[in-house]
Amino acid sequence: MDIEDRLLQGAIDIHVHGYPEYSLRVRGRLNVIEWAELARTAQMRAIVIKSQMFPTVERAHILRSIVSDIEIYGSITLNYSIGGLNPLAVELSGELGGKIVWMPTWAAKNDLLKGAAYFKRVKQYLPVLNRVIPGPEEGIEIIENGKLKSVVKEIVQIARIHKMAIGSGHLSIAESLALAEECQRQAVPFFLTHPFLHCVGASIADLKEIVNRGGYIEHCFITVMPLQERLELSRIVEAIQEVGPSRTIMSTDAVHTYHPPPPEILRMYIASLLHLKVDETSIRKMLHENPAKILGLEEKFAKEKDIVKRLE
Fold it and tell me: Is-above-0.85 flag for pTM?
């Protein structure tokens, strides 16, 4: 067995957009059943489904009854299609086993300001999105008068109660830093996602400050791929070296038809990092251990072992 395949066994991908996501007219590379089956075949441990528009907790719940031998979880993204910063939606997602609360992406004011040209193209090929992707003046911010909004603190509290992690979405760095601090205060796992994406634009110093506030850094492989950011992978390697693999998470963020299937993207990611001299221990930590920590799977594993021990 190749080293890449061996490291893929037990891997956790916390960030994949499963088809269908927001319209049957926008095709995906695979539907969620096909994706889950490929992940199971690769002997991955878990996957988390993300959608820009809808909570995926019900989809994950049903999918678990269809595809066995792999853990499948849902998440929620706080865009306008679910009411934006909506504590009730977060609470219901948590009740249904959701594992991640994503801060606004396509509704974040930061993203709408920096990605105006992109959103113009998106709305042209799918006009319905005009109703769910606002103009920059209506974009969501989580800071008001220099302080974190009270509704955001409430959402963090709900995430703590339901043992959910919080991802930064497409917030600005200033917003993410404030959110990381609140998550640290409430003991909720937080991660800064795709820090080198155009709308985030984090520096190494920013990444270190997120880590100082208890957060993790999530690097999505599609940012290095054609038709995306075309980021030099060496920048991700530099970031891993600067903040350390113990605070880094690898994921795919796969969505489009021009992307390989997510498990293959992870295999490419592993092989590419190995080629750039990132060691196996570091990759295992970033792809197995750290995702398990933020999803609370290590605690789950410990409880299961304790139950077995008591039964014996």
Answer: yes
